[in-house]
Amino acid sequence: MSANDGESPAEKPIGIPAEGRIPKSAGPIEWDIPWTEYAMQQAQIAQKTMESTVENAIEVTRSRVDRILTTSSAHYNQTVDSLQDLKSEYITYEDIVFGKIKEGLLYASSRPLITTGAVLGVGFLSLKRTRQFFSYSTRRLFFSEETLLSRADAKVKELRQSIDLLKVESESLEKKALQAEEDLVRGRTKLRQAGKQIQSVINSAYKIERQASGLKDVLRELPSREASRFRTQVTNLAKEAKKERNAMSKEVTKISNYGISV
């Protein structure tokens, strides 16, 4: 038996398996074990990093919450102190006011004449006209000269605009009146001319009536049979002329009633 056969299994080098038990792998065995350990180390490092990040975030959040609570408590205490100060000042002023009222009542009871005069003065001031007078005086005191001037300027401008509108309306009415007057003059002229024409027609009717009367005299010299036929026609013409003359005379009378001489 060789020296190797005489060695016990305990004396064999650690990590060297028997020849029949060597695992078969695609790559070298010595690269598998360092890569696994490296991955485990990196995982542990990442876990520790995440834990430290979470702890830091929790700590920051906790410190901010504590700071907010501390600040809110300080503001609340400050507000309570301010309210207490206001309450104490209100009580102080209230005591002063009631003290003044009490002094005034005592003073009024000790001097009735002055109190009566003051009451009458207040009653006089409460009248409407008196209040209006004092209100107007007070407003004049508070309003500056520039304000009064601006208001006066605005009033003057308003009046000027009203006057301008009035002038425009007056000019328009004047034009209408002149147009109506011209129409009236033209109408009177036309009526006068129409009256003269009517008068000439009336004169013509008179002439026709006279001529008809003359024809009647001539017809008396003609034989009775022939004269009767012409006499009827002349009479009818004379009647028509008289009828037209009377109608024209009425028109002349109407024109004369308008104050137009014909």
Structure overview:
There is one protein chain. The protein is mainly α. Among the domains are: 34-94; 143-257, no CATH class. Helix content is 84%, strand content 0%. The chain contains six helices and no strands. The chain has helices spanning 3-6, 32-110, 112-125, 128-142, 145-219, 224-257. Helix 5 (145-219) runs antiparallel to helix 6 (224-257).
Q: Kindly report how far apart the N and C termini lie.
A: 185 Å
Rg measurement, Å: 68 Å
Helix content: over 70%
> Could you describe the largest sheet, including whether it forms a barrel?
none
Quaternary class: single chain
- Tally the helices: what do you get? 6
Average the pLDDT over all residues and give the rounded result.
Answer: 70
Kindly estimate the percentage of residues that lie in beta strands according to DSSP: under 5%
- Structural class by helix and strand composition: mainly alpha
**Low-pLDDT sequence parts:** 1-35
Shape by Cα distribution: elongated
Coiled coil: 149-183
Region (Disordered): 1-25
Protein name: Peroxin-14
Keywords: Coiled coil
List descriptors.
disordered N terminus, elongated, mainly alpha, 262 residues, 84% helix
List the helices and strands and how they pair.
Layout: H1 3-6, H2 32-110, H3 112-125, H4 128-142, H5 145-219, H6 224-257
Helix pairs in contact: 5-6
Question: What is this structure, in a nutshell?
Answer:
This protein has helices at residues 3-6, 32-110, 112-125, 128-142, 145-219, 224-257. With 262 residues, it is mainly α.
